[in-house]
């Protein structure tokens, strides 16, 4: 004889059987963390034409920069400092975050070679475009020897060297030009800047100091502060 208790037990057993066969809900993929973007790399070799051996303790600095704006300091994307144990060409590798790259901008590789005392000996003076605008992620770059007190020989500047003084909004800046660079005497320090590529005029830059000159006018930028109206005072 079928009693009410047996009926309840049968219903419970059926519910358990149905629940055991249910398909678990699919995981919510929308909440999953996005995959990290792998860094990309610009590679190449740095060399120079002179048959001069690198001195002991030479330092090669290679940078990847955003050079889209001709009237402002370039933006550093990546850099590598090399203490070579061989002669040129010196291979380099610059890993960079692709999230920092804008397809509409221009990017270039630059390099300098200094001796153990920090004196600039070679620098790039032409544009080596990479990454965007049809350029590859590889650049073999040729550096130019810097003539003057910061050259490999340490010789004094030639008689053809030019020295100008510019008035820059309340203070004077003395600029001594050499082949491939300029030495600026600022109110608080003296800096040597290698010449870099410019769409017009002559542009010199190192770290946080930028100096651009055309005719008797110049633009100076130091530590992010810009002095756009420097005027030539005199030449000697």
What does this structure look like?
With 236 residues, the protein is mostly beta strands. It folds into two domains: 40-145, Sandwich (Immunoglobulin-like); 162-233, Lipocalin (Beta Barrel), CATH 2.40.128.200. The protein has one helix and 16 strands. Strands 1, 2, 3, 4, 5, 6, 7 and 8 form an eight-stranded mixed beta sheet that branches. An eight-stranded antiparallel β-barrel has the order 9-10-11-12-13-14-15-16. A hairpin with an 8-residue loop joins strand 2 (59-66) and strand 3 (75-82). The protein is globular. The relative contact order is 0.13. Residues 149-160 have low confidence and may be disordered.
Overall average residue pLDDT: 81
Structural class: mainly beta
Low-confidence stretches: 149-160
CATH class of the largest domain: Mainly Beta
What is the number of beta strands? 16
Q: Which sheet architecture does the biggest sheet show? A: 8 strands, mixed
Shape: globular
What is the CA–CA distance across the termini?
Answer: 124 Å
Keywords: Lipoprotein, Membrane, Palmitate, Signal
Pfam family, one: YscW
Protein name: C-type lysozyme inhibitor domain-containing protein
Domain C-type lysozyme inhibitor: 166-225
Concise description?
Keywords: Lipoprotein, Membrane, Palmitate, Signal. With 236 residues, this protein is mainly beta.
């Amino acid at each position: 004889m079928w009693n009410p208790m047996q009926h309840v037990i049968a219903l419970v057993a059926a519910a358990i059987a149905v629940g055991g066969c249910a398909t678990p809900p699919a995981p919510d993929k929308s909440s999953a963390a996005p995959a990290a973007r792998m860094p990309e790399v610009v590679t190449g070799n740095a060399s120079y034409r002179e048959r001069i051996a690198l001195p002991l303790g030479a330092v090669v600095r290679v940078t990847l920069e955003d050079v889209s704006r001709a009237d402002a300091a370039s933006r550093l994307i990546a850099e590598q400092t090399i203490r070579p144990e061989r002669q040129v060409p010196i291979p380099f590798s610059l890993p960079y975050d692709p999230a920092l790259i804008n397809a509409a901008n221009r990017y270039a590789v630059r390099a300098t070679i200094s001796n153990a005392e920090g004196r600039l000996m070679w620098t790039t003076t032409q544009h080596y475009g990479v990454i965007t605008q049809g350029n590859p992620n590889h650049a073999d770059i040729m550096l130019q020897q810097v003539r003057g007190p910061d050259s490999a020989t340490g010789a004094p500047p030639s008689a053809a060297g030019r020295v100008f003084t510019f008035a820059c909004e309340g203070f004077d800046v003395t600029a001594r030009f050499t082949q491939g660079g300029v030495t600026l005497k600022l109110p608080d320090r003296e800096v040597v800047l290698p010449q870099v590529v410019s769409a017009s005029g002559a542009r010199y830059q190192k770290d946080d100091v930028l100096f651009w000159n055309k005719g008797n006018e110049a633009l100076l930028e130091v530590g992010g502060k810009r002095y756009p109206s420097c005027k030539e005072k005199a030449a000697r």
